[in-house]
UniProtKB/TrEMBL annotation:
Gene3D superfamilies: MOB kinase activator
PANTHER family attached to this UniProt entry: MPS ONE BINDER KINASE ACTIVATOR-LIKE MOB (PTHR22599)
Keywords: Kinase, Metal-binding, Transferase, Zinc
InterPro entries: MOB_kinase_act_fam (IPR005301), MOB_kinase_act_sf (IPR036703)
Entries under Pfam families matching the protein: Mob1_phocein
Record's protein name: MOB kinase activator 1A
Positions annotated to bind Zn(2+): 76, 81, 154, 159
GO MF: kinase activity
Lineage: Eukaryota, Metazoa, Chordata, Craniata, Vertebrata
């Protein structure tokens, strides 16, 4: 519905231009994912640039989380989720360092809207194809992934019943497992940040050993 909250939070898919090297990398990632071995799928392909691999996968995770969250926006409202949380012990406040310098307490839909808009703006500037990566690229990528993790954590803690009703748990679990294996492979998220879903992460990892 035009102008509704959910259409605002559901950002347009970020496409990697066809024919570009990053597009080829994305195709490589999709092909290895199809093999079913997620540990192998996240590894840096031989001879490839680490920054580029992280950029391509970060765009892909942004699109996946965007789609997953887009399916449950009607259940994630100012009333149902007045704070951005992952269970009773973890609450997240928003700051982007430019427009909002001091972290603010906000509802989950508001936080996720801020986050998705912020990530999109980043993709439009330092992540342009064929432009050298900025010196702070890795720290920015880590911040993006840390915050995208919070959306997974919020969905699992607050909306998993809705995900089950929509029969999307397999899709969510596969997406999250891929995400976790990726951030573990390159040590992109501090272990303490992963605490809200630690049990699930251990379960997913043990199945793959």
């Amino acid at each position: 519905v035009s102008g509704s909250r959910s259409s605002k939070t559901f950002k347009p898919k970020k496409n990697i231009p066809e024919g570009s090297h990053q597009y080829e990398l994305l195709k490589h990632a999709e092909a290895t994912l199809g093999s079913g071995n997620l540990r192998q799928a996240v590894m840096l392909p031989e001879g490839e640039d680490l920054n580029e691999w992280i950029a391509v996968n970060t765009v892909d995770f942004f699109n996946q989380i965007n789609m997953l969250y887009g399916t449950i926006t009607e259940f994630c409202t100012e009333a149902s989720c007045p704070v951005m949380s992952a269970g009773p012990r973890y609450e997240y406040h928003w700051a982007d360092g430019t427009n909002i310098k001091k972290p603010i307490k906000c509802s989950a839909p508001k936080y996720i809207d801020y986050l998705m808009t912020w990530v999109q703006d980043l993709f439009l500037s330092p992540w342009k194809m064929g432009v050298p990566f900025p010196k702070n690229f890795m720290s920015v990528a880590k911040t993006i992934l840390k915050r995208l993790f919070r959306v997974y954590a919020h969905i699992y803690h607050q909306h998993f019943d809705s995900v089950m009703r929509l029969q999307e748990e397999a899709h969510l679990n596969t997406s999250f497992k891929h995400f976790i294996f990726f951030v573990q492979e390159f040590n992109l998220i501090d272990r303490r940040e992963l605490a809200p879903l630690q049990e699930l992460i251990e379960k997913l990892g043990s199945k793959d050993r």
